[in-house]
Please model this.
Amino acid sequence: MAQTLIIVSKPRHEDLQTAKNLLQANGFIFNSQLLKDQVIQFTGNSSHNQITAILQNLKIDWCLHQALPQIADVLVCDMDSTIIGQECIDELADLAGVGEQVKAITEAAMHGDLEFSHSLGKRVEQLAGHSKDILDECWNNRITINPGAKTLITTMNRLGAKTALVSGGFTWFAKLVARKVGFCEYHANELEFRDHKFTGKVIGEVIDGIAKQNHLSRLAKGNKITCAIGDGANDLAMIKGADIAIAYRAKPILEKSANGIIRHTDLKTALLFQGILPKNWTIVDE
Model:
């Protein structure tokens, strides 16, 4: 069966027509205009590298399906820099006065240059002795929900999908984000405190890349169609394990393994990649 390619631009962006012309010149067959001036579906046969080469200079997001698009039964999302616009550990470190040291470790881990569990431990150690009050300050003044997240999750829930927030960050934030955005469940790392201060340690199992993939596999039992969205190296295992694997404003190491790329639009594009059009969305104010 021929592959299906869905391309998405911002509304009425001139690159959409350019992309259409280039794809047709490279053997893709126009299938349908899913959404006027924004979303086009093609059929054809190609590879990630070929599509990247064709579209790399255009402000176009895309998803390549091996057959026809399907709606996911399971949606698993990373939290930091995916559902929210920040890395919580970096923001906490900045409030604690150790931002530069921690940010450098985070960046290396995101690119896959450091093993995640080790890098997490090194970063959390920097918070030892600081007041727990910076958690509230961080949440109230630093953390923002990324555009499209609420509509994406609310729509998927209404369509019957199981939605899970699975984060290498912290449960203190994941609980609040999951509640605000509407996830069915959440999993993250538990910070340890003593006398209202960070001890610099994490309690229990670390939610690393393998743990994320395990949660995806657990939810996928019964041959369910899965979608995963992430941005860094810690999301690589679940991205490789998902039927619809979306890299959201991601590091190169993750983009190479994804069949969906979101760089220029927002998280509602994950609905368009599944063939779910705005008339079937549950719009939530962002």
The chain is about 35% helix and 25% strand. The chain has a mean pLDDT of 96.
